[in-house]
Amino acid sequence: MSIKVGEKIPDCTLKTMGAEGPVNITTDEIFGGKKVLLFAVPGAFTPGCSNTHVPGYVVNADKIKASGVDTIACMAVNDAFVMDAWGKAQNAGELLMLADGNGEFTAALGLELDASGFGLGKRCQRFAMLVEDGTISQLNVEPGGGVDVSSAETMMKLL
């Protein structure tokens, strides 16, 4: 069952890239006392994610933050090394690149995607959410392929 608007973000630990390598970052550190726009993609370096989803957030990062968002975070079921390399390739310096390497946070959210038919294993569905002090205020999960309800442009209209 998928998490819903009004519910608290589950306590989990993700990874991000630090100066010395991957470091743990808890959901409380990410979401506690902040307004966060988190968007998730099925996989780093995949066509829809690289050509459409991330670029929309990169181009609009200043506008999103000017609307009161403290952090824009991008998450995928990939490791911290891949997320860091992808962030650099996308010029995504304004985004917090989060690795959910084992899919634990994705499972806790109830937003798993079985992409084993494509050779990708368990991934996360494509979605975007606004989280205010750890509570979800908006959740947009893509109903199928493509980037529409989770795009930067759609989420900006909700700010």
UniProtKB/TrEMBL annotation:
Annotated Gene Ontology cellular components are:
cytoplasm
For this chain, one GO molecular function annotation is:
thioredoxin peroxidase activity
Q: Which reaction does it catalyse?
A: a hydroperoxide + 2 glutathione = an alcohol + glutathione disulfide + H2O
Instruction: Show the active-site residues.
Output: 49 (cysteine sulfenic acid (-soh) intermediate)
Q: Look up the record and give one Gene Ontology term from the biological process aspect.
A: hydrogen peroxide catabolic process
> Entry's CDD domains?
PRX5_like
Oxidoreductase as a keyword of this entry, yes or no, is: yes
Domain Thioredoxin residues, every copy: 3-159
| Pfam families in UniProt | Redoxin (PF08534)
- Quote the EC number: 1.11.1.27
Specify the enzyme's EC class, one word.
oxidoreductase
InterPro entries, per this entry?
A: PRX5-like, Redoxin, Thioredoxin-like_sf, Thioredoxin_domain
- Keywords, sorted A to Z: Antioxidant, Oxidoreductase, Peroxidase, Redox-active center
Q: Which PANTHER family match?
A: PEROXIREDOXIN, PEROXIREDOXIN-5, MITOCHONDRIAL
**Briefly, what is this protein's role?**
Thiol-specific peroxidase that catalyzes the reduction of hydrogen peroxide and organic hydroperoxides to water and alcohols, respectively. Plays a role in cell protection against oxidative stress by detoxifying peroxides.
Q: Which family does it belong to?
A: Belongs to the peroxiredoxin family. Prx5 subfamily.
Q: What is this protein called?
A: Glutathione-dependent peroxiredoxin
- Organism, by scientific name, is Kineobactrum salinum
At the highest ranks, the source species' classification is: Bacteria, Pseudomonadati, Pseudomonadota, Gammaproteobacteria, Cellvibrionales
